[in-house]
Amino acid sequence: MKTAIIGTGGVGGYFGGKLARAGYDVTFLARGEHLKVMLQNGLTIKSLQGDFKVAPVKATDSIKTIGAVDLIILALKAWQIKDITNDLGALTRRDTMVLPLQNGVSVIDELKDHLNQENIIGGLCRIISKIESPGLINHSGIEPVIIFGEIDNAETERMRRLKTVFDQAGITARISGDITADLWKKFIPICVSGLLAVTGTTYGELRELKETRQLMIELLDEIFRLSQQIGIRIEPDFVEKAVAFIDTFPHNSTSSLTRDIREGKPSELEYQNGTVVKLGELFRVETPVNRFVYNCLLPMEIKARR
Fold first, then answer.
1. Predicted confidence (pLDDT) per residue in 219-274, tens digit
2. Are 43 and 13 in contact (CB under 8 A)?
3. Are 133 and 10 in contact (CB under 8 A)?
4. Rounded to an integer, what distance in angstroms lies between the CA atom of residue 178 and that of residue 152?
5. Is it the case that residue 114 has pLDDT exceeding 90?
6. Predicted TM-score (pTM) above 0.85
7. Domains of the chain from N-terminus onward
8. 20 to 30 A Cα–Cα from 211, which one of 81, 246, 292, 301?
């Protein structure tokens, strides 16, 4: 299966590296010094599950030079997707699968505006990873997993074929029976990222202090109640499960949104707490904690985008 990894950060670098190590034809889209080091020395993955290196690697800074592929893994930040959707046509055939792994619940709708719906499959991943230095990806927390499925939840041969590819690459993967629900199950806890940025904490610091732990639970509960108003099928005890999951994160870990905001970079704020606020208004669900987080971070987001 010929694959294009669009965005070679912590997500694309890790999962693309696993595919390339397994012998699949993988081309990475990267830029700057990161791309330069990859072309010269290969891509190194430092992981809790074992370090490895892929060399040589196929990598470029131009989507149009990749050519048609069987699988496109979109591993950019959510806010970057709209900037590259028009270029994806150069990679896409009638049977090409486009797998977005962004945070949030609105990326599929954005892709539908530019691609045939038949090409798009739903997806998400769980991993704590980042570019540690040019050419080096550091996977530092959570067992990496990809969850994917047809948008209409149909059981199809191409989903089974993709699962086989991930299995052979040593990637833990699951075909979803309800991809919309699974996207929300990731979306709800990832919105804690904004609270980390507001409080200046790591996951460990946030959850250990009684006051900030309560804020975290209230933030999660708001989004859960919103999901139920929208009609998303999620189990009633999901908030408790989400808190238990967050309790397993490494004490000093943060999220990509948190790091971006602290470093003065554009972030996924609009796709996380901003989305909660907007959907809350639309479906008449009060979201005061998420609104507070969003409003506090919005001036920094505007400044970063300038």
1. 999 999 999 999 999 999 999 999 999 999 999 999 999 999 999 999 999 999 99
2. yes
3. no
4. 8
5. no
6. yes
7. 3-177 (3.40.50.720), 183-305 (1.10.1040.10)
8. 301
